[in-house]
Design a protein that fits this description.
572 residues, alpha/beta, 2 domains, two-stranded antiparallel sheet, 13 strands, 53% helix, 6% strand, elongated, membrane, transmembrane, DUF2029 domain-containing protein, transmembrane helix
C-alpha cells in the first residue's frame, strides 16, 4: 500500500479531521447530554422505587457496616445481589448532600448523560463513518431510543440499568473503533480496543447478572465488525472473551467467592439448579412472569406493548411503539440490502467512509437483533432492554435510506447523496414525532423533592430514627422495608428476612436456609419486633413458618420519605 493510500485511510478514521462536519465530540457535548438528562430527572422527581426500598439501600449498608455477620437476608433473595452499583448513591445519602435532593438527582442523571454521549458516538459511526463528530441527524437518531419507555423513566433513579447500558454501549463502541483501527493497519490498537470491549461487557455482567444476555450479542458484533477470514474473526472473539473474563472476575469474583464460602453457591439462591447448594431449592429463581406464552405472542410482542398494556413487559401500564417500529425497520433493512445486492451485483465500490458506515450499520443491527432474541427468551422485562432501545433509531434511519436507495436507478452506497440522507433523517423525525405522541411512560414510584410527610424536610432519603431495646430482633415480614434497618438504633440489633419456600426451602428440611432462620429466631430471648408495610397485608406465610404473632395495637408508623406505609410492631 502506498503512503498516499495509507494517509487516506487515516484521514477517514481521524475523529477530528478538518473536513469533518458537525461538532466535535468533546466535554461540551457530554455536558449538554448531562444537562438534558438532569432536566428530565428534575421533572420526574425524587426516586422512591420498590427496588430502592427493598434492597438497593440495605445491601450496600450491610456490606459497609459488616451486617453479613449479624443479619439473615433482610432483603430476602435480593440480599445476594451485587451491591457495587449502589455505592455512589449510598455515599451521597451519607453526606451533607442528602439534604440537597435536587443536586443528587442531577448527579444521578450523569449516567444517562454518559449513555446519551455513547449512543451519539455509535450513531456518528453509522451515519458518518466517524465517531468523533456529532451532527443534527446523529443526535436525532440517538433521541429516538433515548426517549423510550425503558430509558427515559429511569433517568436519575437507582435501578442501575442505565449504568449497565453505559458499559454495554461502551463495549459496542470499542468494537466499532477496533474495526477502524484494523482498517488503518493498527493491529495493536485494535487488540486493545477489543480487550476493552470485553472488559466493559464482563464488568456489566459482574455488576448486574441480568446483563448476561449481551456478551453473546457482542461476540456476534465482533465477528461482523472484523474484516478478514475465519482466523481473524476467531482472534477478535478470543480477545473479546479474554477481556470479558477479566472484567467479570474483577467485578464479581470477590462477591461470588464470598457467597460461595458462605452458602455453597456463588450466586446465593440464584441458579441453584446448577450449583445445588443444600440451603436452597434446586431451581433457577428466574422471573418468568413477563415471558410470552407462545411463539405467536413472541413474534407479535413489540406490537403488543406498542399499544397501552399492563403487565406485559413491565408491571406498570405503558405504551411505546419504538421496538415495533425499530425491529420492523431492522428486518426491512436486511431484506432491502439482500434484494439490492442480488439485483444490482455490479454496484461500484463505495468510499472508505461509506464502507465504515455500512459495516457499523451491519454490526449494530446484528447486536440489536441478537440481544433482543436472547432478552425475549430469558426475561422480556423492558428495564433490561435499555442497551437495545437506545439503538432503535439506527435501523429506522437505515431503513429509510435503503428505501430511498431502492428508488434510484443507480444503486449502491455510492448513491447515498445528501438529499437521500436528508430524506432518511426526515423519515426518522416523523417516526420520532409519532412515537412521542403515542408513548405512555410507566409510572415508576417518584415523589416531589419536598414532600410534606418528610420527617426532616427536603432530603434524598429520610427516616425518623427509632431507638430499640438492647439485643432486639427485627423480623421483616414483607419486602420493600429493609431501607429502614439503618435507622432502628439499638445495641446488638439483628434483622431477619422472611424465608419464603420459593428461595429458602421449607423449614421442615433441616438442611434448608429456612430451617436455619427458624432456629435462630427460636433461640432469641430478647425483645422482638416485626417490620412491615401494612399490618393488614403482610407475609403471613413467613409469619406462620416463624411462629410469629403480633397485636395490631402494638404497631406504630415509621416516618420516612420513601413510602407512606411502614409499621414497626411488637412480636410475642
Amino acid at each position: 500500500m502506498s503512503d498516499e493510500r495509507h494517509h487516506t485511510i487515516q484521514d477517514v478514521f481521524r475523529e477530528d479531521g478538518p473536513t469533518a462536519g458537525g461538532l466535535r465530540m468533546d466535554w461540551k457535548v457530554f455536558l449538554a447530554c448531562w444537562a438534558a438528562a438532569a432536566f428530565v430527572a428534575l421533572a420526574l422527581g425524587r426516586d422512591t422505587s420498590w427496588d430502592l426500598r427493598n434492597y438497593h439501600y440495605y445491601n450496600i449498608y450491610a456490606l459497609l457496616e459488616g451486617r453479613w455477620a449479624v443479619d439473615l437476608t433482610p432483603a430476602r433473595a435480593h440480599t445476594f445481589l451485587h451491591p457495587g452499583l449502589d455505592l455512589p448513591f449510598y455515599l451521597l445519602t451519607q453526606s451533607y448532600l442528602n439534604a440537597w435532593p435536587r443536586l443528587v438527582s442531577v448527579l444521578q442523571a450523569s449516567y444517562a448523560g454518559l449513555l446519551a454521549f455513547l449512543t451519539i458516538a455509535v450513531a456518528n459511526l453509522v451515519l458518518n463513518g466517524k465517531a468523533g463528530r456529532v451532527t443534527p441527524a446523529t443526535a436525532l437518531v440517538a433521541c429516538f431510543g433515548l426517549s423510550g419507555a425503558a430509558t427515559l423513566p429511569e433517568i436519575g433513579s437507582t435501578y442501575n440499568d442505565i449504568q449497565i447500558a453505559c458499559l454495554v454501549l461502551g463495549a459496542l463502541l470499542a468494537l466499532l473503533l477496533a474495526a477502524g483501527a484494523s482498517d488503518a493497519h493498527e493491529a495493536s490498537k485494535a487488540t486493545r480496543l477489543r480487550l476493552i470491549a470485553g472488559l466493559l461487557g464482563g464488568c456489566a455482567v459482574g455488576l448486574k447478572l441480568t446483563a448476561f444476555i449481551f456478551p453473546p450479542a457482542l461476540a456476534l458484533a465482533a465477528i461482523i465488525a472484523t474484516q478478514g477470514g475465519l482466523v481473524l474473526r476467531a482472534r477478535a472473539v478470543a480477545q473479546l472473551s479474554v477481556g470479558g473474563a477479566l472484567g467479570f472476575a474483577i467485578t464479581y469474583g470477590p462477591w461470588g467467592w464470598f457467597l460461595w464460602n458462605r452458602f455453597g453457591n456463588p450466586f446465593g439462591s440464584f441458579t441453584n439448579n446448577i450449583f445445588r447448594s443444600p440451603l436452597f431449592p434446586f431451581v433457577s429463581q428466574r422471573d418468568e412472569s413477563f415471558l410470552p406464552d407462545s411463539l405467536v405472542t413472541a413474534l407479535a410482542y413489540p406490537f403488543i406493548w406498542a399499544h397501552r398494556s399492563t403487565g406485559t413487559v413491565l408491571e406498570p401500564t405503558l405504551a411505546d411503539p419504538r421496538f415495533a417500529v425499530g425491529l420492523t425497520a431492522l428486518l426491512l433493512v436486511i431484506g432491502l440490502a439482500m434484494w439490492r445486492r442480488f439485483s444490482r451485483p455490479c454496484t461500484p465500490p463505495p468510499s472508505l467512509e461509506d464502507r465504515a458506515a455500512a459495516r457499523a450499520v451491519r454490526t449494530v443491527l446484528a447486536f440489536t437483533l441478537a440481544s433482543y432474541v436472547i432478552w425475549l427468551g430469558n426475561f422480556s422485562i423492558l428495564r433490561y432492554a435499555i442497551p437495545m432501545e437506545v439503538l432503535l433509531g439506527i435501523p429506522v434511519w437505515a431503513a429509510a435510506r435503503e428505501l430511498l436507495l431502492a428508488t434510484k436507478p443507480e444503486g449502491g452506497l455510492a448513491a447515498a447523496t445528501a438529499p437521500l440522507r436528508r430524506g432518511a433523517t426526515l423519515a426518522l423525525a416523523t417516526a420520532l414525532g409519532v412515537s412521542a405522541i403515542v408513548t405512555e411512560y410507566p409510572a415508576h414510584p417518584r415523589e416531589p423533592f419536598f414532600w410534606e410527610r418528610e420527617p426532616r424536610g427536603a432530603a434524598v432519603l429520610a427516616v425518623s430514627p427509632i431507638p430499640l431495646p438492647k439485643d432486639s430482633l427485627v423480623v421483616l415480614l414483607g419486602p420493600a422495608v429493609s431501607f429502614v434497618a439503618p435507622f432502628l438504633d439499638s445495641p446488638s440489633v439483628r434483622f431477619v428476612g422472611g424465608p419464603n419456600p420459593n428461595w429458602a426451602g421449607v423449614a421442615s428440611d433441616p438442611a434448608s436456609y429456612a430451617a436455619q432462620v427458624l432456629q435462630e429466631v427460636r433461640l432469641h430471648r430478647g425483645p422482638a419486633f416485626v417490620l412491615l408495610e401494612d399490618p393488614d397485608a403482610y407475609d403471613e406465610e413467613a409469619a406462620e413458618v416463624l411462629a410469629i404473632t403480633f397485636e395490631r395495637a402494638s404497631c406504630r408508623p415509621v416516618p420516612n420519605n420513601l413510602t407512606k406505609v411502614v409499621q414497626l410492631c411488637r412480636w410475642r
